[in-house]
Amino acid sequence: MIPLGFTPLLALALAASLSTAFPRDAPKGCSLSKYQFLAPLEMKAVQKMKQHFEDIVLLSDRQCKSRLFHRKWNVAELSVPDRMVLVAAELDFTTAMLGLPAEPAFAETRQRPLAFLSQAREDLRVCMATEAPSHQPSGRLRHWLQKLQVAKKTETTGCLEASAILHIFYVLNDLRCAALREQCT
């Protein structure tokens, strides 16, 4: 039997040893689970931005020759590291387009989606650095990444902006698939 005065001392020693075993300031690992199911508030903000964009822009002036989001393959067919690379590229592209100068009303409407997508991009970078730091994309993904680079050089800014905003729900679905880490639909 342990003497009563010794119990608090033992508890203190145990707490001290556990705190060194599990440091509080340990770097966060990959945490994409919050993107599996997007908050209704975020979805509503994205929908409002997309609708505002469609209302103010003559889409015929922003037609693209390259159809970036029309792929012959489904994101679910990619490996998890490939999905992460794809979504990182899509988020980089989309946040760059949302960051372009715009009329004041649209600039205000896109602030929340831009902040959300920027945070998702940063979370994804952490995951990629910890889980797949030297991953080489598959052939089909490499082809799409090359297509994206060509489009950035050859298409008008208006075309690229329209493509990013009009297909933003594709990007959100791809983010969800990357967060699931298993087969997604």
From TrEMBL:
Entry GO terms, CC: extracellular space
InterPro entries: IFN-lambda_sf, INF_lambda
Main location: secreted
Signal peptide: 1-21
Source organism, top-level taxon: Eukaryota
Protein keywords: Antiviral defense, Cytokine, Secreted, Signal
Location in or out of the cell: Secreted
GO molecular function, one term: cytokine activity
Name of one Pfam family that matches: IL28A
BP term (GO), one: cell surface receptor signaling pathway via JAK-STAT
Listed Gene3D superfamilies: Interferon lambda
Entry's family note: Belongs to the lambda interferon family.
The protein's name: IFNL3 protein
Naturally occurring in which organism (per UniProt): Rhinopomastus cyanomelas (Common scimitarbill)
